Amino acid sequence: MVFVVLWSTGFIVAKFGLPYAPPLTFLLLRFGGVLLVLLPLVLLMRAPWPHGRLLHIAFAGILLQGGYLAGVWCAIKLGMPAGLSALIVGMQPILTAFAAPFVGETVRPRQWLGLLLGICGVGLVVAAKITLVGLSWTSIGLCLMALVSMTAGTLYQKRYCPHFDLRTGTIIQFAASFVVLLPFAIFYEHLTPALDAVQWTSRFIGALLWSIFALSIGAIFLLFALIRKSAATRVTSLLYLTPPTTALMAWLMFGEVFNLMGIAGMVVAILGVIFVMKK
Protein backbone atom coordinates (compact mmCIF):
# COMPACT_ATOMS: atom_id res chain seq x y z
CA MET A 1 0.00 0.00 0.00
CA VAL A 2 2.93 2.34 0.64
CA PHE A 3 4.10 1.63 -2.91
CA VAL A 4 0.64 2.41 -4.34
CA VAL A 5 0.41 5.73 -2.47
CA LEU A 6 3.92 6.82 -3.48
CA TRP A 7 3.51 5.70 -7.11
CA SER A 8 0.18 7.52 -7.33
CA THR A 9 1.84 10.85 -6.59
CA GLY A 10 3.59 10.71 -9.97
CA PHE A 11 0.77 12.48 -11.81
CA ILE A 12 0.51 15.04 -8.97
CA VAL A 13 4.23 15.77 -9.36
CA ALA A 14 3.73 16.20 -13.11
CA LYS A 15 1.00 18.75 -12.42
CA PHE A 16 3.37 20.70 -10.15
CA GLY A 17 6.57 20.34 -12.20
CA LEU A 18 5.71 20.44 -15.91
CA PRO A 19 4.62 24.11 -16.04
CA TYR A 20 8.10 25.17 -14.92
CA ALA A 21 10.45 22.98 -17.01
CA PRO A 22 10.48 20.94 -20.24
CA PRO A 23 9.75 17.24 -19.53
CA LEU A 24 13.10 15.71 -20.53
CA THR A 25 15.01 18.48 -18.75
CA PHE A 26 12.99 17.81 -15.59
CA LEU A 27 13.73 14.07 -15.85
CA LEU A 28 17.46 14.70 -16.29
CA LEU A 29 17.46 16.89 -13.17
CA ARG A 30 15.53 14.12 -11.38
CA PHE A 31 17.89 11.34 -12.47
CA GLY A 32 20.95 13.48 -11.71
CA GLY A 33 19.57 14.23 -8.25
CA VAL A 34 19.15 10.51 -7.53
CA LEU A 35 22.78 9.89 -8.50
CA LEU A 36 24.02 12.78 -6.32
CA VAL A 37 22.10 11.40 -3.33
CA LEU A 38 22.83 7.69 -3.69
CA LEU A 39 26.40 7.59 -4.99
CA PRO A 40 28.07 9.07 -1.85
CA LEU A 41 25.93 6.79 0.36
CA VAL A 42 26.86 3.71 -1.66
CA LEU A 43 30.56 4.55 -1.50
CA LEU A 44 30.33 5.27 2.23
CA MET A 45 28.44 2.04 2.94
CA ARG A 46 30.63 0.03 0.55
CA ALA A 47 27.58 -1.57 -1.02
CA PRO A 48 28.39 -4.47 -3.38
CA TRP A 49 28.28 -3.82 -7.12
CA PRO A 50 26.69 -6.51 -9.32
CA HIS A 51 28.97 -8.72 -11.36
CA GLY A 52 27.97 -10.25 -14.69
CA ARG A 53 24.50 -8.65 -14.74
CA LEU A 54 25.39 -4.99 -15.13
CA LEU A 55 24.13 -4.72 -18.72
CA HIS A 56 20.89 -6.54 -17.84
CA ILE A 57 20.27 -4.17 -14.92
CA ALA A 58 21.09 -1.12 -17.05
CA PHE A 59 18.78 -2.20 -19.89
CA ALA A 60 15.91 -2.92 -17.49
CA GLY A 61 16.44 0.53 -15.99
CA ILE A 62 16.34 2.25 -19.37
CA LEU A 63 12.94 0.63 -20.00
CA LEU A 64 11.54 1.17 -16.49
CA GLN A 65 12.85 4.69 -15.92
CA GLY A 66 13.75 6.33 -19.22
CA GLY A 67 11.19 4.88 -21.62
CA TYR A 68 8.22 4.89 -19.25
CA LEU A 69 8.71 8.32 -17.66
CA ALA A 70 9.80 10.08 -20.86
CA GLY A 71 6.78 8.69 -22.72
CA VAL A 72 4.19 9.73 -20.13
CA TRP A 73 5.68 13.15 -19.32
CA CYS A 74 6.22 14.15 -22.97
CA ALA A 75 2.70 12.97 -23.87
CA ILE A 76 1.15 15.09 -21.11
CA LYS A 77 3.29 18.07 -22.12
CA LEU A 78 2.03 17.73 -25.71
CA GLY A 79 -1.58 17.91 -24.51
CA MET A 80 -2.49 14.30 -23.73
CA PRO A 81 -5.20 14.43 -21.02
CA ALA A 82 -3.94 12.90 -17.77
CA GLY A 83 -7.06 10.69 -17.52
CA LEU A 84 -6.56 9.19 -20.95
CA SER A 85 -2.84 8.65 -20.37
CA ALA A 86 -3.69 6.88 -17.08
CA LEU A 87 -6.14 4.63 -18.94
CA ILE A 88 -3.61 3.73 -21.66
CA VAL A 89 -0.78 3.04 -19.21
CA GLY A 90 -3.33 1.21 -17.03
CA MET A 91 -3.41 -1.56 -19.64
CA GLN A 92 -0.01 -2.73 -18.36
CA PRO A 93 -1.25 -5.49 -15.99
CA ILE A 94 -3.20 -7.17 -18.83
CA LEU A 95 -0.24 -6.83 -21.20
CA THR A 96 2.01 -8.31 -18.51
CA ALA A 97 -0.38 -11.23 -18.02
CA PHE A 98 -0.29 -12.07 -21.73
CA ALA A 99 3.52 -12.06 -21.59
CA ALA A 100 3.70 -13.98 -18.28
CA PRO A 101 4.94 -17.23 -19.95
CA PHE A 102 8.08 -15.27 -20.92
CA VAL A 103 9.11 -15.38 -17.24
CA GLY A 104 7.71 -18.86 -16.57
CA GLU A 105 4.49 -17.69 -14.89
CA THR A 106 0.91 -18.78 -15.43
CA VAL A 107 -2.21 -16.67 -14.98
CA ARG A 108 -5.21 -18.44 -13.50
CA PRO A 109 -8.82 -17.79 -14.67
CA ARG A 110 -9.65 -15.97 -11.44
CA GLN A 111 -6.69 -13.65 -12.03
CA TRP A 112 -7.86 -12.91 -15.59
CA LEU A 113 -11.23 -11.95 -14.12
CA GLY A 114 -9.44 -9.70 -11.64
CA LEU A 115 -7.41 -8.05 -14.42
CA LEU A 116 -10.56 -7.32 -16.43
CA LEU A 117 -12.29 -5.91 -13.34
CA GLY A 118 -9.22 -3.77 -12.68
CA ILE A 119 -9.18 -2.11 -16.11
CA CYS A 120 -12.95 -1.58 -15.90
CA GLY A 121 -12.44 0.11 -12.54
CA VAL A 122 -9.71 2.36 -13.96
CA GLY A 123 -12.03 3.25 -16.86
CA LEU A 124 -14.80 4.28 -14.45
CA VAL A 125 -12.40 6.42 -12.41
CA VAL A 126 -10.97 8.34 -15.37
CA ALA A 127 -14.19 8.46 -17.45
CA ALA A 128 -15.07 11.97 -16.30
CA LYS A 129 -11.57 13.22 -17.14
CA ILE A 130 -11.21 11.74 -20.62
CA THR A 131 -11.30 14.33 -23.37
CA LEU A 132 -10.00 14.37 -26.93
CA VAL A 133 -8.99 18.03 -26.75
CA GLY A 134 -5.29 18.43 -27.52
CA LEU A 135 -4.97 14.80 -28.56
CA SER A 136 -2.45 13.97 -31.30
CA TRP A 137 -0.96 10.84 -32.83
CA THR A 138 2.41 11.82 -31.33
CA SER A 139 1.04 11.95 -27.78
CA ILE A 140 -0.82 8.64 -28.29
CA GLY A 141 2.39 7.06 -29.61
CA LEU A 142 4.38 8.33 -26.63
CA CYS A 143 1.83 6.89 -24.19
CA LEU A 144 1.88 3.53 -25.98
CA MET A 145 5.70 3.62 -25.86
CA ALA A 146 5.50 4.19 -22.09
CA LEU A 147 3.07 1.25 -21.75
CA VAL A 148 5.27 -1.16 -23.71
CA SER A 149 8.46 0.10 -22.05
CA MET A 150 7.19 -0.35 -18.50
CA THR A 151 5.78 -3.79 -19.26
CA ALA A 152 8.93 -4.98 -21.03
CA GLY A 153 11.14 -3.56 -18.27
CA THR A 154 9.21 -5.35 -15.53
CA LEU A 155 9.33 -8.70 -17.35
CA TYR A 156 12.98 -8.29 -18.37
CA GLN A 157 14.09 -7.53 -14.82
CA LYS A 158 11.98 -10.38 -13.44
CA ARG A 159 13.63 -12.85 -15.83
CA TYR A 160 17.25 -11.72 -16.10
CA CYS A 161 18.12 -9.74 -12.97
CA PRO A 162 15.52 -9.99 -10.17
CA HIS A 163 18.15 -10.05 -7.40
CA PHE A 164 20.71 -7.29 -6.95
CA ASP A 165 21.70 -4.78 -4.31
CA LEU A 166 19.02 -2.09 -4.56
CA ARG A 167 21.45 0.73 -3.81
CA THR A 168 24.02 0.03 -6.51
CA GLY A 169 21.44 -1.37 -8.94
CA THR A 170 19.40 1.83 -8.73
CA ILE A 171 22.51 3.91 -9.48
CA ILE A 172 23.23 1.79 -12.55
CA GLN A 173 19.66 2.10 -13.83
CA PHE A 174 19.38 5.86 -13.37
CA ALA A 175 22.86 6.48 -14.79
CA ALA A 176 21.96 4.45 -17.89
CA SER A 177 18.63 6.30 -18.24
CA PHE A 178 20.40 9.66 -17.87
CA VAL A 179 22.85 8.78 -20.66
CA VAL A 180 20.04 7.61 -22.98
CA LEU A 181 17.79 10.65 -22.40
CA LEU A 182 20.59 13.23 -22.62
CA PRO A 183 20.92 13.33 -26.45
CA PHE A 184 17.11 13.52 -26.85
CA ALA A 185 16.99 16.46 -24.43
CA ILE A 186 19.82 18.18 -26.31
CA PHE A 187 18.19 17.63 -29.72
CA TYR A 188 14.53 18.28 -28.92
CA GLU A 189 14.71 20.72 -26.02
CA HIS A 190 18.07 22.41 -26.69
CA LEU A 191 19.28 21.54 -23.21
CA THR A 192 21.27 24.68 -22.31
CA PRO A 193 18.42 27.12 -23.12
CA ALA A 194 16.01 24.67 -21.46
CA LEU A 195 18.04 24.72 -18.23
CA ASP A 196 18.11 28.52 -18.37
CA ALA A 197 14.33 28.54 -18.83
CA VAL A 198 13.66 26.40 -15.74
CA GLN A 199 11.62 28.42 -13.24
CA TRP A 200 12.97 27.55 -9.81
CA THR A 201 9.74 28.24 -7.94
CA SER A 202 8.87 26.64 -4.60
CA ARG A 203 6.39 24.35 -6.40
CA PHE A 204 9.01 23.20 -8.89
CA ILE A 205 11.67 22.60 -6.21
CA GLY A 206 9.16 20.69 -4.09
CA ALA A 207 8.11 18.56 -7.08
CA LEU A 208 11.75 17.85 -7.96
CA LEU A 209 12.71 16.86 -4.42
CA TRP A 210 9.63 14.64 -4.08
CA SER A 211 10.47 13.02 -7.44
CA ILE A 212 14.00 12.27 -6.29
CA PHE A 213 13.37 10.96 -2.79
CA ALA A 214 9.79 9.62 -2.72
CA LEU A 215 9.42 8.38 -6.31
CA SER A 216 12.82 7.58 -7.80
CA ILE A 217 14.28 6.20 -4.57
CA GLY A 218 11.36 5.21 -2.31
CA ALA A 219 8.80 3.91 -4.82
CA ILE A 220 11.41 2.34 -7.11
CA PHE A 221 13.06 0.49 -4.21
CA LEU A 222 9.64 -0.88 -3.25
CA LEU A 223 8.85 -1.84 -6.86
CA PHE A 224 12.12 -3.76 -7.17
CA ALA A 225 11.48 -5.52 -3.85
CA LEU A 226 8.00 -6.53 -5.06
CA ILE A 227 9.36 -7.79 -8.41
CA ARG A 228 11.90 -9.84 -6.48
CA LYS A 229 9.32 -11.46 -4.19
CA SER A 230 6.13 -11.78 -6.28
CA ALA A 231 4.89 -12.82 -9.72
CA ALA A 232 5.06 -10.05 -12.32
CA THR A 233 1.29 -10.17 -12.94
CA ARG A 234 0.54 -9.74 -9.23
CA VAL A 235 2.96 -6.82 -8.94
CA THR A 236 1.64 -4.94 -11.97
CA SER A 237 -1.97 -5.48 -10.87
CA LEU A 238 -1.23 -3.04 -8.03
CA LEU A 239 -0.96 -0.32 -10.68
CA TYR A 240 -4.75 -0.57 -11.11
CA LEU A 241 -4.95 1.19 -7.75
CA THR A 242 -2.88 4.13 -8.99
CA PRO A 243 -5.55 6.07 -10.99
CA PRO A 244 -8.17 5.85 -8.19
CA THR A 245 -5.62 6.93 -5.57
CA THR A 246 -4.38 9.75 -7.81
CA ALA A 247 -7.97 10.88 -8.45
CA LEU A 248 -8.61 10.95 -4.71
CA MET A 249 -5.43 13.00 -4.16
CA ALA A 250 -6.39 15.42 -6.96
CA TRP A 251 -9.84 15.83 -5.40
CA LEU A 252 -8.35 16.64 -2.01
CA MET A 253 -5.55 18.90 -3.29
CA PHE A 254 -7.00 20.60 -6.38
CA GLY A 255 -10.77 20.13 -6.05
CA GLU A 256 -10.93 17.98 -9.20
CA VAL A 257 -14.04 15.93 -9.93
CA PHE A 258 -14.34 12.68 -7.99
CA ASN A 259 -17.98 11.57 -8.26
CA LEU A 260 -19.97 8.43 -7.50
CA MET A 261 -18.72 6.83 -10.72
CA GLY A 262 -15.16 7.38 -9.53
CA ILE A 263 -15.94 5.83 -6.15
CA ALA A 264 -17.56 2.83 -7.89
CA GLY A 265 -14.48 2.53 -10.12
CA MET A 266 -12.21 2.51 -7.07
CA VAL A 267 -14.23 -0.32 -5.50
CA VAL A 268 -14.17 -2.35 -8.74
CA ALA A 269 -10.41 -1.79 -9.15
CA ILE A 270 -9.74 -2.89 -5.56
CA LEU A 271 -11.90 -5.98 -6.10
CA GLY A 272 -9.95 -6.79 -9.27
CA VAL A 273 -6.61 -6.52 -7.46
CA ILE A 274 -7.90 -8.81 -4.71
CA PHE A 275 -8.83 -11.42 -7.34
CA VAL A 276 -5.31 -11.23 -8.79
CA MET A 277 -3.38 -11.13 -5.53
CA LYS A 278 -5.32 -13.68 -3.47
CA LYS A 279 -3.64 -17.08 -3.35
UniProtKB/TrEMBL annotation:
InterPro entries: AA-Vitamin_Transporters, EamA_dom, EmrE-like. GO terms for cellular component: membrane. Keywords: Membrane, Transmembrane, Transmembrane helix. The keyword Ribonucleoprotein does not apply. Residues 2-126, 140-277 form the EamA domain. Its main location: membrane. It is found in: Membrane. The chain crosses the membrane at residues 27-45, 57-76, 82-100, 112-131, 137-156, 168-188, 208-226, 238-254, 260-277. It is a multi-pass membrane protein. The keyword Transmembrane applies. Belongs to the EamA transporter family. This is Permease of the drug/metabolite transporter (DMT) superfamily.
